[in-house]
Each structure stands twice: as structure tokens, then as C-alpha cells.
Task: inverse folding
């Protein structure tokens, strides 16, 4: 056992000396592996960070929440021309659903928000996303009010001229002053600010911080069921103990009957579940990971070939030295370990540099982006980078090391003379 340890130690020392004696070659070999590991781990870390950010944004929502509308939130087999002819989801549809579908914990009618201008005295903010939506969204989206309150069901049903703002929007419009009770102009009409939501932080563009909410019926009073032709949807949150499959079947059947669809006619609406959206996101994340592996794998492959090429050159240059070592009693395993360690050290050091660059990139990106997005380099990705670089070193060095260990000492000395 001690003999093997001494062989490994001496082989390791020889490998380090060989790398130190050829600094330029060592640097070029490191560069290939560094770029490969950096590419793969950076892509994987970015995709993991995106996945984490999406899941955090959806974590507060009930995955069984459904959106009944004419649009599909994911891939569908229904042709485009047929979907374009689906009727819009109107407020009357919402009234039918909430009065006739059992086991609904909460529901809401939303008109997908348009970009509006909000004015307060001399202050004007343009391109603000204002979402006309009924009171139920407060429960469905688990919204939190920091100042004031959200509008009530009565205010929602009667279309009261009130507005609830996100924290960032309120800060931009009112500064340090208390916004509650202030009167703003939206849609050319006066609305009273009754609430400001807590600060959520920017996620994927769906944070309520820069948005405003108004009762859908307020907008319907002067814009005939929509905002500049924007479509509506019914948001449904089933009760917690309900069989979701059975609930969806009942919902579809009753809504079909309500719309007068015959048994042989296809649905002219879609029921989109958040759980389906999560699965769709998972599929996209998986595809991004695969594409990242394929693209970055080429960089790593080039780095591996670079190490293998350098090792073959190293064996060729040191053929005479290998012959001398063997003539003095060096075993095949000593020569094998010597070159194998050289390849592994090259790959591991290159991989560690690549990981360090990814870590630095993560720090810089987090400093630039701030709270909008968190770039995370997980321990799993770091271990994967280290393992990959070690594997590439072994794979690239095993054939040159084996060929060096099998050299005949006499032929090796003669070749080098």
C-alpha cells in the first residue's frame, strides 16, 4: 500500500513539474476547459435561477386556480382560425359560473389590463398597467394591503370609482405623502385611492408593484364590457377538498350547456389551470437545459480534445525521458499515473477557474439587477462542474497515458536520440 502511495506521490510531482515547465501550453489547455465549464455551469445556473424565480412567483397561488377564457395558456390542438372565432368571455358568463357551479371557494372576472395614463395634480404617469377585476382576486391571488384596504364585494358589483395601487406606483405618483383618499384620473375619470399593496419585489414582470386594480364593473359602465377591445376571463379557485378532475368536468359541461353547444360540437372556450402552466414551464426549463447542454457541450468537447492533443504532444516530447525512467526501473503504472495526473490537473484547475468566473458573473449580475432577479450558483452545479472537469481530464488523458506506459524503454531512448 505504501508503495502505491509513493508511486502516486512521485507521479503527481512529475506532473506538476511538467506543467510548470510548459507554462504557455498549460495556459492554452486550461483555457479550453475553462471556457467549456464556464459555458455549461453558467447556462445551468441561469436556467435554475429562472426556474426558481418562476416557482417563487407562483408559490403564493393555488395551483388548482383556473382561468376560463377563449385563449389557451399553453400548446393546443385547436387550430388558430377556430380559436379566433371563439366568443369573448363576458361578465354575464362570470355571473352564470359563480351562481351555478358548485364547490367554488372564490371567483373573479378580469379584463386583461391595458396600459393607461394616471394623473394626480401635476404628476402624470404613462403606460401604467391598470387591471379591471372584481373583488374575488383579493382572495385568489392572496394579495396583501399595506395601507388602506382592497375594494369590497359591494364596491366591485356596483362599479364604485375606487382604485388600489401597487407600492411602486403609489411611490412614483405621491412620493412620501399618504395616498389614501387622494383622487386620481384614469380613463379620463376620477377615482379615489383606497389602498396600497405591500411591496412584492419585481419578479418576472408580473409583480403588482407597478400595477393598479379597479373594479371591472366600473370600466364596464363606459366601455361596453372591455378596455380597448381587450379580452376578459373568469378566474376560479375551487374549494381545497374538491376533486379537481370532477370539478373541471362539471364546469365544462355546465358552461357548454349555458352556451348552447351540442354534444358533437367542440368547446369554444379553454379552462387553463395554473398546475398546467407550471408543467408547461417545467417543459420549457427542461428544453432550455437540454439546449444549454448541447451548445455548451461543444465548448467542453473542444477543451477535452485540446487536453488530449497536448498530452500526445507531451508524450512525444518526453519519449526519451520515459525510456530513461523505465531503464532505471520505473514501472508502467508510474508512467501511467504521471501523464494521467497531468491531464486531470489541467482539467480540474481549468474547471475551478471556470466555476470562479461563473461565481464572479453571478455577483456582478446580482449587483446590477438588484432585487429584480437573483442569479444563484448552487452547490449542485458547482459539484457538477468539478466532476465534469475531472471526468474530462481522465477521458482526455487515459489514452496518451496508456500509450506512454506501454513504450518499450530501448525504443523510447533510441527514438529520443
Result:
Amino acid at each position: 500500500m505504501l508503495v502505491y502511495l509513493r508511486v502516486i506521490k512521485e507521479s503527481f510531482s512529475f506532473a506538476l513539474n511538467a506543467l510548470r515547465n510548459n507554462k504557455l501550453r498549460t495556459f492554452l489547455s486550461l483555457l479550453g476547459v475553462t471556457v467549456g465549464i464556464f459555458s455549461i455551469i453558467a447556462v445551468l445556473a441561469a436556467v435554475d435561477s429562472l426556474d426558481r424565480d418562476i416557482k417563487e412567483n407562483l408559490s403564493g397561488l393555488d395551483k388548482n386556480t383556473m382561468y376560463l377564457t377563449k385563449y389557451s395558456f399553453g400548446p393546443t390542438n385547436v387550430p388558430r382560425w377556430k380559436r379566433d372565432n371563439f366568443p369573448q368571455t363576458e361578465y354575464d358568463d362570470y355571473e352564470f359560473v359563480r351562481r351555478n357551479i358548485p364547490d367554488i371557494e372564490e371567483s373573479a372576472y378580469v379584463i386583461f389590463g391595458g396600459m393607461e395614463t394616471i394623473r394626480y395634480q401635476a404628476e402624470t404617469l404613462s403606460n401604467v398597467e391598470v387591471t379591471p377585476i372584481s373583488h374575488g382576486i383579493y382572495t385568489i391571488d392572496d394579495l396583501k394591503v399595506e395601507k388602506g384596504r382592497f375594494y369590497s364585494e359591494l364596491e366591485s358589483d356596483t362599479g364604485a370609482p375606487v382604485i388600489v395601487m401597487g407600492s411602486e406606483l403609489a411611490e412614483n405618483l405621491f412620493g412620501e405623502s399618504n395616498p389614501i383618499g387622494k383622487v386620481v384620473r384614469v380613463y379620463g375619470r376620477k377615482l379615489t385611492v383606497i389602498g396600497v399593496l405591500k411591496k412584492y419585489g419585481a419578479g418576472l414582470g408580473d409583480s403588482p408593484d407597478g400595477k393598479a386594480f379597479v373594479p371591472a364593473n366600473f370600466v364596464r359602465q363606459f366601455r361596453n364590457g372591455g378596455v380597448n377591445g381587450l379580452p376578459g376571463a373568469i378566474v376560479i379557485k375551487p374549494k381545497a377538498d374538491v376533486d379537481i378532475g370532477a370539478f373541471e368536468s362539471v364546469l365544462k359541461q355546465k358552461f357548454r350547456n349555458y352556451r348552447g353547444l351540442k354534444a358533437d360540437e367542440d368547446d369554444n372556450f379553454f379552462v387553463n389551470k395554473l398546475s398546467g402552466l407550471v408543467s408547461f414551464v417545467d417543459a420549457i426549463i427542461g428544453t432550455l437545459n437540454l439546449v444549454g447542454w448541447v451548445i455548451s457541450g461543444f465548448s467542453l468537447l473542444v477543451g477535452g480534445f485540446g487536453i488530449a492533443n497536448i498530452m500526445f504532444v507531451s508524450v512525444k516530447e518526453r519519449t526519451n525521458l520515459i525510456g530513461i525512467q523505465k531503464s532505471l526501473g520505473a514501472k508502467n503504472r508510474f508512467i501511467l499515473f504521471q501523464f494521467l495526473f497531468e491531464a486531470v490537473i489541467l482539467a480540474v484547475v481549468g474547471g475551478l477557474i471556470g466555476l470562479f468566473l461563473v461565481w464572479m458573473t453571478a455577483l456582478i449580475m446580482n449587483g446590477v439587477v438588484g432585487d429584480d432577479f437573483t442569479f444563484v450558483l448552487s452547490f449542485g452545479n458547482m459539484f457538477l462542474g468539478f466532476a465534469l472537469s475531472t471526468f474530462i481530464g481522465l477521458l482526455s488523458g487515459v489514452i496518451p497515458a496508456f500509450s506512454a506506459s506501454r513504450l518499450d524503454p530501448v525504443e523510447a531512448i533510441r527514438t529520443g536520440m
